[in-house]
Glycosyltransferase
Amino acid sequence: MGSSPCDDASLPPQPHVLLFPFMSKGHTIPLLYLARLLLRRGVAVTVITTPSNRPFIAQSLQPSSGAAIIDLPFPETLPGIPAGGSGVESVDNLPSISLFFNFAMATQLLQPHFERLLHSLLPRVTFLVSDGFLWWTLDSASKFGIPRFVFFGMSNYIHVVLEEVFNNNDGPQTHNDELVSLTPFPWIRLCKDDLECLVLRSHTKTSTEFRKKVGSATANSYGMIVNSFYELEPLFIDYWNTEYSAPRTWCIGPLCLDQKVQYSKPKQASWTQWLDQKLEDKCCVLYVAFGSQAEVSAEQVREIASGLEESKVNFLWVVRKKSEWEVVEGIEERVKERGMIVREWVDQREILMHESVEGFLSHCGWNSVLESVCAGVPILGFPLMAEQPLNARMVEEELKVGLRVEVEGGLVRKEELEKKVRELMEGEKGKEARKKVKELAAMAEKAVEEGGSSWCTLETLIHETC
Ligand code: UDP
Ligand code: UDP
């Protein structure tokens, strides 16, 4: 042995990248796209996960991809998670999302296993990409001299807004309903609801400690990989890289444009046939989905159902939570051929790419926003939690690729939904958003092609770290 692979001038070293996603589908999917991108560039890839998250990863990557998957044993019971939640290895399966911070803190129990792995893993690891929530992986990587890139499934816009609100000011000044504007971007005027889910809702000891750890590990990481592309938000990317000292942002997306390997999809999915029929009938469809995590109250689901019914548009609605099934019971019979409810995991990218889909009623998780942009489908933002209200603001105000619903007394009323759905599908604003989103879709394609901005950034990243 003697020399490390990088020292041997006669043999080009094969870089080896470790990917460590956080345990939820929304956080894992973009890193699996990244795995495939790296593999195609001749990089060896190892994905770190836990036993019950393995099947989803293995199925998405497919054995022929050449990626290695290693599970770290996850404890049966987690501190702070009630007995009913024991054995939970994913945020998506928590008995309540309010246990998020306990779960996230408990991931640190994986650290000794992770370090044993780093000690023995060959070929030598070139760099680690780990989710921002796995803050403790920075310490582990540093012990072994491995650069760590942090990954948050968020735009640069959100990173800049969070930094301006929380780190460059004395905390959020949104204790009343007044709008607060950001000094460097005076047109961005935030209200209480934009930030409520992010911070105000939880200031327990655990959540405060967690945020501190995540913030500090982020700041001390080698770089930040962002699932976005330069042409989408140049202002915020340049601002981040010139105004803040660390870590540098590397935009290598949209990762979902990786088309080479498809998910194993049921070819004859009932919704695909339904969409094909709509296309044949020359009907436009509104796709309705709220991601993999968010909880929607029964009252809200009822308002959405009535709003969709009244809007008279064609809709394909993914209702994933069992608790919501009862509420939507009967709607298909009432709207006849106009609506379809799907109760299982779908290939969202495929649906958005379907030619009949002309609008997306979305919770505005960042993956969903990007997938919609790439498919050239305008968005009606219906944010539910976390940074989604800010994503929805970005969609409407910065990117101008959609609209947002207004909340009234904690609910989006059916009348509001009906009005905005019509505006998106038939109105002037929808038309403008559709034009803009198609332009961005073309730019996204260019960014990931050989020689495009994201393609070059990934190339530089690989070469700089080896
Ligand atoms: N997704 C999917 N099928 C489903 C539900 C979700 O493929 O039935 C995918 C969706 O395409 C996206 C991810 O799951 O890539 C959800 O991520 P997002 O950031 O939009 O929201 P989150 O689930 O994290 O709230
Ligand atoms: N965070 C950070 N930089 C970022 C994004 C997030 O330091 O660019 C930290 C920040 O401290 C934030 C924490 O991660 O409060 C949790 O992120 P998020 O708001 O997504 O969590 P949520 O409130 O949705 O559970």
Observations:
- The chain has 19 helices and 15 strands.
- Residues 16-260+447-465 form a domain with the Rossmann fold fold (CATH 3.40.50.2000).
- Residues 428-448 form the longest helix (21 residues).
- The CA atoms of residues 270 and 337 lie 13 Å apart.
